[in-house]
Structure formats: C-alpha cells, structure tokens
Write a structure and sequence with these properties.
alpha/beta; Catalase HpII,  Chain A, domain 1; Hemocyanin, N-terminal domain; 6-stranded parallel beta sheet; 18 helices; 14% strand; binds CIS-heme D hydroxychlorin gamma-spirolactone 17R, 18S
C-alpha cells in the first residue's frame, strides 16, 4: 500500500487524504497474484486436460478470477443512480458560535475535507447527464466530530410534503414498468398522471420546468438543503436554519434543444466537465450560506417552515454567507469512492439537529435502510470513503464484511470488565444530545392545514422570471405534456397551471390544443379514504412579496470566464496575430480553450507556425462549448466550404451563444446567418476581445430564439 502523494492543503494536514491513502494500491512493478497472494504464472490459459481437452474444476486461479468478475456489480441507487463526485475542502469565513456549537462551523482555521456527489434522479447509472431533472448535491463533511452529510438538491423545495408519498413519486417518474421506457426523462404518462393529482408538487414542478433542471455544468448550480434544520448553540438554544450553496461560477443553464443534442454528442458531458475542470486546476468553488430564523419566529411566516414544498425567499430572510467549499481532487477510483459513498441526512454532529418536517423524518429512516441492500450489510461505514475521521468506538459487532478486530470479551454497556469502556460522552465532552422539543399531541395521520397552500410560491417563482425564462418554462411544459399520451392527464395539468398563472396555462394549453378549465376543489387524488374533502381545499396565502429576483438565474451570471469552454474554429492559413492573440488572452483568463479544425494533427498559420489541433470538426460539436471564436485569415476560405464548420456556427448561433470573429471570420458567420444585424447582441465581428469576453460572461443571448435559424 502506498500513501497518497497528492496534498491539496497548504499546511499538509488533511486527515481524510491520509486515511484514504492507507487503502490505496498501486500495482506498478509488482507481480500478479491470486487474492491469497500466490504469484500467478499464466493468466492467459485455463487449466485443461490436454490442449484441446475439457477445462478442469481444479483450476483455482480461473475460478477465483471468474467468480470475482461475476460479482463485480452492486445494485445501483434506487434514485440518484447516475452521479459524479469530487474531493475538496471547506473553510469557514466566520465563527457561527452564536447559533451552533458544531466545531467545523466555529474554527476558521480548520479546513474540513469534503466529498461531494452530484447526481440526476430518474435515470440509471449509465444514463445521460443531460436529462431534464433535479440534480442531487450531496456533501459529506469529514469533521473532527464525525461525518456531517448535507444531502441536498439543486432546487430549494421538493415535490411532496410527506415521506409516505416518496415511493409513489419515484414509481411514477421512473421508466414505466411494463417496457422500461423512457430512460432519464420525466416526459411520460405515469409521471404527469401522478403530478396532476398532487397539487403540492406544483412549486417544485415549476423549478423542474425551468432552466435549473438543465444545468450547463454541475459547477454552475446552486445547492439547497431544502428542509429546515436546527442549529444548536452551547447553551442548548435552537435556531432554525436553511442551507444554501452559491457557486462562484454563476448559475447557468442549457437551451433545451442543446441539452437533447448534447445527450447524443457527449452523454457524459457533466461528468467530463467536472473532471476536466479539476484536472486543469480550475477548481470549482461554492460559498455556503445560511438563512437563520429564531425559534420564536417559527410561526411568523405565511407558510410553514416544516413544509418542504416551500422556500423562505431570500428577500424575506437574507442568506448569510459563512464559508467556502473548493473541489480540488478527482477520485482515484469511481467504484470505490463515487459508487460506494453512502450519504445520509441523519449523519449529523453536535450543533446540528432536525425539525419535524415529515419528509425529513422519513428520510432519516430510508438512507441507512437502502445502503443495507445496496452495499450489502451493516458495515458500510467501514468502507474507506465512508469512514469518519475520529475513531469509531462502540459495542456494535460482527456482520458481513466486518473490518475492525475488536479485542477483549466486552461488547456491552454498562460493563465493569472493560472498565466501563467505551464511555458515554457528556454534552460538554462532545456527546450528541437531541434538542429537547416539547411535544403535546395526539397520535394521528393527518397533514397540518398550514401545508395546504400549494400554489402561492409556484406563482411567486413564475412571476420572478425574466421573459426568456418564462418562455422556457412554457416550452418545457408544452414539450413534457406533449409527450404524454393520455389527453385527460394533459387537461388536468393545464387546469392545474391555471392556478399558477393564467397566461402560462393558456400558452401551454394552446400548444396542446386544449382550453384550461377551473380545477374542481379539492383535487381528489391526494385525499385519504376517510378524509373530509372540506379539509383538503388548497388555500392561497398572500405572500408579502410578489417577486423574488433571487430565484431568477438571469440574476446569477458569473463575473469571470474561468473554466468556460471556448472553441477557436480555424484551419490552415489562419492569420498569426488574430489566432495567437485570442488564444493567449482567453487562456490567461483561465478559460478552457480548444482549437477545432477540419482535421486532427496541426494547423499551420500563415507564417508557417504549427499549433496542435484539439479536436476535428468530425468529432467535436458546438454544443460542448460555451462560446465560439472564428479566427480569420485565409483559413476562412476553407471553412466557408466545409459543411461541418457551417453547422458548427449555425448550432452555436441557434443556441444563443456568444460568437466572436475578426473581419475575415465574420464572412463565415454571415454565410450562416444571412440576416445578421450589424450590432447583434452576442455576435462580435470586429475582433474586439474585451467585448467577446463580456459576452461570454453574459452566457446566452436568448432573444435570438425569437428569430430561430432552421438548424
Ligand atoms: Fe433522497 N434518497 N430521498 N432526497 N437523495 C436517496 O439514498 C429519500 C430527498 C438525495 O449521491 C437514496 O443512498 C426519501 C430530498 C440525494 O449518493 C434513498 C425521500 C432530497 C441523493 C433516498 C427523499 C434528497 C438521495 C437512494 C423523501 C434533497 C443521492 C440512494 C422522504 C434535500 C445521494 C441512497 C448520493 C438518495 C430516499 C427525498 C436528496 C432511497 C425516502 C428532499 C442528493 O435512500
């Protein structure tokens, strides 16, 4: 075994890296052995009776190799099966002792190791990254006091209010059971059948139909803990807290047509992008923010803090930024780390506690339970990626694949034979004690009336969108419901949309050839058998704000072009100055620049200099890039005749991307966009690089959608 040599922390103290290092192996310079350590002489031929004879059962080398292979796969996650992960560190900006005693949220000198896994929800392990879907955003903090997992999503709300409905939600959204279609898509009958009967889903559905659900990169997504948690300070006082991750890369989305094309051109696009950004040293960063609500303000809001279908708009309670997470190391092995990592919202440390959110309470059961079948037994906490930094000392024993070798006779507490060890820790010694919440209630299966406003925040979200964001939501609903085969389901959905926004409902209905109608109240699907329908009318509360600009992605553009992917389209004969100037300036600003040319190998500039080509027009695709620059000179004559080059430009234009060119390069763009306006937003044909870089920061020029190219 070799200790890992990579060391991301300046002070050299990353306990998780050191711990993982003990388990890493490197076969360089070693003989091949069996799992029992016997050196293998022939790994090419099985043992046979004669060189043309039958194979022999005696062949322990073949049997061992094949048996291990036969069992290489483990069950994939029931949801969030498709994921990508990275290691990093979290550093606090300011001590939070007023609210929480958690050590990693009190000491600004500690760099807490983290492991983060991003995921889609619906698709299988090998499905596309580019699905319209919620993204998982799960962070494991390896703190000095044990593991703390913040297992969130990239939306601040969820589809359902009670964990009881989770299996139904997942059964509805997963590929339909009779034919396992569709993969990595919610655009099918069973999903919308369920949703059309579940008005509580409407708020999260609005987020799902927005560009949040088709992120340009995992690096440009916000993350949310969703539930209201508690911070507990040294005096045992509780504050409510909501967690936010704010990317320093901005919040960026794809065009829907682009997402669908990208799914074919590079189905691993998000995974590759995260991997390459980290390999290139362009480490993605997120700031951790908290919204804190004093205990005594619990009932001051027009929605219930325990209801996971509601956010607290930032305009009502500001997000306080308290620290920064940097992802700076790719996993060494996908299976050992990304696949075997086991998150759990119940992995908390002293200073962080739960609320009675009925979705959170159900999650606290589900995650350990699912790991038992996924990872094969109760000892998955001993898998290196899941190990806590402090020693694990308790009286739990045995089980499949136990790694610890506990010494002595004592595995119970209290004991005298083991001097009472391991000891219980007092609160002042760091022992976890649950917050003492007073409960005075009857045992009852019922939902609080305070959960029955299903539409106000959905409307708030829609009202907060810019014109192009609204258009994208209308189109997304039209697409998804257009894929639904049963007309009554489509109708119920457009009726539901009428409760959110009349214009939205009409636009979607129009696309479907329907007319939205007032919903019958209450919506029957979500009422228990003996429920009183009068209790189930959805209430509309009046929110103190009519718009929440903080939910619009248009307000979250980046202020740099770090790790943005920019294609320089060129060919032999390119003008030296034009070419080198753009490449140098973009690289200096940490963009990921690629030279795309008609063929692989080298491009030769006008003066005879040669530069390696990163990708050819055959294997590259414009959908992979954030922006395109056409470097001029004689190369443009070649590109003007090249169908691949014309398609590349047309697609980039269609997807509203920034396009730059110098005087000759502009000829190519004009051939593709014959009616190009002189000063069209996002198309810079005067070679002005500062203008081009400014356009890249603006990400997309969505107005072009109003006059689309037939590409
Ligand atoms: Fe999960 N969820 N979930 N979930 N969830 C799982 O646990 C579950 C919910 C989230 O990268 C499973 O290890 C229930 C909300 C993420 O490994 C499972 C309910 C949020 C991941 C499970 C929810 C999440 C999971 C499947 C409703 C955002 C991927 C595999 C009561 C706050 C973690 C696994 C990773 C994974 C159950 C709802 C986030 C089955 C029962 C809300 C990011 O245990």
């Amino acid at each position: 075994m070799k200790i890992n040599e990579q060391e991301p922390f300046e002070n050299g103290a990353n306990p998780k890296v050191e711990q993982l290092g003990k388990y890493k192996v490197d076969h360089n310079g070693e003989f091949m052995t069996t799992n029992q350590g016997t050196k293998i002489n022939d790994d090419q031929n099985s043992l046979k009776a004669g060189d043309r004879g039958p194979s022999l059962l005696e062949d322990f080398i073949f049997r061992e190799k094949m048996t291990h292979f036969d069992h290489e796969r483990i069950p994939e996650r029931i949801v969030h099966a498709r994921g990508s992960a990275a290691h990093g560190e979290f550093q606090l900006y300011k001590p939070m002792g007023k609210y929480t005693k958690a050590k990693f949220l009190n000491d600004t000198s500690i760099k807490t190791p983290v492991f983060v896994r991003f995921s889609t929800v619906q698709g299988s392990r090998g499905s596309t990254d580019l699905a319209r879907d919620i993204r998982g955003f799960a962070v494991k903090f390896y703190t000095q006091e044990g593991n703390y997992d913040l297992v969130g999503n990239n939306t601040p709300v969820f589809f359902i209010q009670d964990a009881m409905k989770f299996p139904d939600l997942v059964h509805a959204v997963k590929p339909e059971p009779h034919n396992e279609i569709p993969q990595a898509a919610s655009a099918h009958d069973t999903f919308w059948d369920f949703i059309s009967l579940m008005p509580e889903a409407m708020h999260n559905i609005m987020w799902l139909m927005s560009d949040r659900a088709i992120p340009r990169t995992l690096r440009a997504m916000e993350g949310f803990g969703i539930h209201t948690f508690r911070f507990i300070n040294d005096e045992g006082k509780s504050h409510f807290v909501k967690f936010h991750w704010k990317p320093l890369q901005g919040v960026l989305g794809l065009a829907w047509d682009e997402a669908q094309r990208l799914a074919g051109k590079d189905t691993d696009f998000h995974r590759r992008d995260l991997w390459e950004a980290i390999e290139n040293g362009m480490y993605p960063e997120w700031e951790l923010g908290v919204q804190i609500v004093p205990q005594e303000d619990e009932h001051k809001f027009p929605f219930d803090l325990l209801d996971p279908t509601k956010m607290i708009p930032e305009e009502m309670v500001p997000v306080e930024i308290i620290g920064k997470m940097t992802l700076n190391r790719n996993p060494d092995n996908f299976f050992a780390e990304t696949e075997q990592v086991a998150f759990h919202p119940g992995h908390v440390v002293p200073g962080i506690d739960f609320t009675n959110d009925p979705l959170l309470q159900g999650r606290l059961f589900s995650y350990t339970d699912t790991q038992l079948s996924r990872l094969g037994g109760p000892n998955f906490h001993e898998i290196p990626i899941n190990r806590a930094i402090p020693d694990v000392t308790n009286n739990q024993r045995d089980g499949i694949h136990r790694m610890q070798i506990p010494k002595g006779k004592v595995s119970y507490h209290p004991n005298s034979m083991g001097q009472g060890c391991p000891f219980q820790a007092m609160i002042k010694e760091g022992g976890f004690a649950s917050f003492e919440e007073r409960i005075d209630a009857s045992k009852i299966r019922k939902r609080s009336q305070s959960f029955f406003d299903h539409f106000s925040q959905a409307t708030l979200f829609y009202n907060s969108m810019t014109d192009h964001e609204k258009r994208h939501i209308q189109n997304a609903f039209s697409f998804e419901l257009g894929k639904v085969q049963l007309v009554p389901i489509r109708q119920r959905m457009v009726d539901m949309l009428l409760e959110v926004d009349e214009d939205l409902a009409k636009k979607v209905a129009d696309h479907l050839g329907l007319v939205p109608k007032k919903l019958p109240q209450p919506i029957t699907g979500s009422i228990p058998a003996d429920g009183n329908p009068d209790d189930h009318h959805s209430l509309k509360v009046k929110l103190p704000i009519t718009e929440a600009p903080s939910v619009s992605m248009a307000n979250k553009l980046p202020t740099n072009i770090k790790a943005r992917r920019i294609a320089i389209l060129t060919a032999d004969g390119v003008d030296d100055d034009a070419f080198t100037r753009v490449k140098k300036q973009l690289c200096e600003m940490d963009a990921m620049v690629q030279i795309i040319a008609p063929r692989h190998g080298f491009v030769t500039t006008k003066s005879g200099e040669q530069y390696p080509v990163d990708d050819s027009l055959l294997t590259a695709a414009s959908v992979v890039f954030d922006a395109l620059y056409v470097a001029g000179g004689e190369s443009v004559n070649t590109l003007l005749e090249h169908a691949g080059a014309l398609h590349f430009v047309a697609e980039a234009y269609k997807h509203c991307k920034p396009i730059g060119a110098d005087a000759n390069g502009a000829d190519l763009i004009k051939k593709v966009v014959p009616e190009l306006k002189d000063a069209e937003d996002g198309v810079i044909t005067n070679g002005d690089l500062d203008e081009f870089i400014g356009a890249i920061m603006l990400h997309r020029f969505w107005d072009r959608e109003m006059n689309p190219l037939p590409a």
